[in-house]
Design brief:
By secondary structure, the chain is mainly α. Helices cover 68% and strands 1% of the residues. Helix 4 packs across helix 6 and helix 15 crosses helix 17.
């Protein structure tokens, strides 16, 4: 989820690279990030003149958001614990799939253990964002933890695959509340100057989970029953629930906008998003893209999208308000984050297959190659504040995603087969670039809105990122399938799989193929990887163009966000 240089240290920068200056006139629009400084031009050797004593801060105007105080350590720990529930989930569950399928059956639909969870969490993000702006973050967060806890308990008791998928959807309903609300609370509880610290901690939670999750899940699946993977969530969720209910006190805030909840819009968004994501997940897998089911689902989602626009334009308090797209900053961040979701398909979804097939690594080694990105990402995110304080949110994010485009493009130049250290280096550099890209956008866009709009804004950013990832999985998956199918059709060797359905089996057991056929298939997978990373490169370049052409050069940071 900027200033130039100030005129000497006497006017230094406060949070987010916003230099001191005259206060905004009452009733004026939010001031923008600072322009260029001149202090560095005069030379750093001369000691700056003493800063004049600051004038007493005026009392906040009625209805203004009060600056947040430093949150208790217990609350920060609870937020990180809550985020770990979501971060650990996919990594742990993925390792237990063979045991789950062996116990419950349902191999043909087991992918919905993940797809159902992601779909439920994604389509409910706008609703949770609006509810948190109306009723507060705490009740929404407590509801999300409760749903996640209940879903985990029911998953552990599942008696067949259909029941497990249904309970995973319930768990995803809770996960959607956790993702957006924790990110929003991080902005509520921390002033802009200190916000990168909590965001870096959240990134560290994801990195730690990516590293520890597969190992922990493997241990549980190997030495105990797979149901303990879900039972493990119970004490963690219960602890987070207890700490947040007892210790979380939200900052003083203006009263939320009154009016009935837009339940019609919520249902329409849920159904429209659900159909779209269902079409993207199943298209090219359960049926061809140009088949009646795919075209029907995509057509129905388009019609429902028009209905959503019609409902939201007439709603008193819409779930997806029009200002999310009318404001340049938010619209640009949403589009750029959709590009992030799309390009993430290459390193997170395809890289494990590439590492096992082309590099010849085992599942653990492939996981370590992928996790290299999660090591550099939080480090880069923690250092990003030093960059955006100098050049601004937009320019920092644009620099990060441009570097990501260069790194993704460099993957297509690797030799065949590359030494292992080269893909590892690619992943390390990519994590560093993306940490520089994502955090300034999240911190920056949250700083342009008040409390009563922050939940909706944060939810829209996460919603676009998740939809971008679903679209990316469909598009880049289709590219990979077309590449491999084309190579199979032109194969000069015999003994290769006759269709794409048999390719995955051949990749799992390459020893069943003749050496020439196995080598040809590995080269086909490598070619598919080049095309996928080329597509990811184009997505990164598109995000950079969006930021440079659509986003304002300086984000309109609210005056109260500059406090602290």
């Amino acid at each position: 989820m900027g200033s130039g240089e100030s005129t000497g240290a006497s006017t230094g920068e406060n949070a987010g690279g916003i230099p001191g200056g005259a206060p905004a006139a009452p009733g004026s629009r939010p001031s923008y990030e600072a322009g260029a400084k001149t202090g560095a031009k005069t030379g750093a050797a001369t000691d700056p003149a003493p800063a004049p004593a600051p004038a007493p801060a005026p009392a906040p105007a009625p209805g203004a958001e009060s600056p947040p105080g430093r949150p208790r350590t217990a609350v920060v720990a609870a937020l990180m614990l809550t985020m770990s529930l979501v971060a650990l989930d996919a990594a742990i569950v993925a390792t237990a799939v063979p045991q789950i399928v062996g116990d419950l059956g349902g191999f043909a639909v087991f992918s919905w253990i993940f797809s159902g969870y992601v779909l439920a969490g994604t389509v409910t993000l706008p609703l949770y964002g609006k509810l948190s702006d109306t009723y507060g973050r705490k009740p929404v967060l407590l509801l999300g933890i409760s749903l996640f806890l209940l879903g985990s308990l029911l998953c552990a008791a599942a008696w067949n695959m259909a029941a497990l998928i249904a309970f995973r959807i319930l768990q995803g309903l809770g996960g959607g509340a956790l993702q957006g609300t924790v990110q929003t609370l991080a902005a509520d509880l921390y002033p802009l100057k200190e916000r990168p610290r909590i965001q870096a901690r959240m990134s560290a939670v994801w990195a730690t989970s990516a590293l520890a999750g597969p190992a922990l899940g493997g241990l549980i699946a190997t030495y105990t029953d797979w149901r303990w993977i879900f039972l493990l969530n119970l004490p963690l969720a219960a602890a987070a629930l207890l700490i947040i209910s007892r210790h979380l006190v939200e900052p003083t805030r203006p009263p939320g906008r009154t009016g009935p909840v837009d339940w019609q819009g919520a249902v329409a968004v849920f159904v429209c998003g659900g159909l779209l994501l269902f079409a993207l997940v199943q298209g090219g897998v359960a049926w061809p893209w140009l088949s009646v089911p795919s075209l029907g689902l995509l057509g129905a989602s388009a019609a429902l999208g028009a209905l959503v626009v019609w409902i939201e334009r007439r709603a008193e308090q819409p779930i997806l308000p029009g200002w999310v797209w009318r404001r340049r900053t938010i619209a640009a961040v949403n589009l750029a984050m959709a590009g992030l979701g799309l390009l993430m398909v290459a390193p997170m979804v395809f890289m494990p297959t590439y590492a096992q097939t082309v590099l010849g690594l085992g599942p653990t080694g492939a996981g370590l190659v992928t996790s290299a990105m999660t090591l550099s990402w939080p480090i880069s995110a923690a250092l990003a504040q030093h960059v955006y304080r100098r050049i601004g949110f937009r320019n920092t994010a644009a620099t990060g995603v441009a570097l990501a485009a260069a790194v993704l493009g460099a993957f297509t130049l690797l030799p065949y087969p590359p030494p292992v250290w080269q893909p590892v280096l690619i992943m390390l550099l990519l994590g560093g670039a993306l940490g520089l890209f994502q955090l300034p956008l999240i911190v920056g866009v949250q700083s342009t809105v008040g409390w009563e709009e922050r939940g909706t804004t944060t939810a829209s950013v996460l919603f676009c990122r998740n939809v971008g990832q679903s679209v990316g999985a469909a598009l880049l998956g289709a590219v990979a399938n077309a590449t491999i199918a084309g190579r199979l059709a032109q194969a000069p060797v015999a003994g290769l799989p006759s269709n794409l359905d048999e390719v995955s089996k051949a990749l799992t057991h390459p020893d069943l193929l003749a050496p020439e056929a196995a080598e040809y298939l590995r080269r086909a997978v490598a070619a598919a990887g080049d095309h996928i990373f080329l597509g990811a490169t184009l997505a990164a370049a598109a995000s950079a163009l969006v930021l440079l052409l659509v986003a304002p050069r300086r984000f309109p940071v609210l005056p109260e966000q500059r406090e602290g």
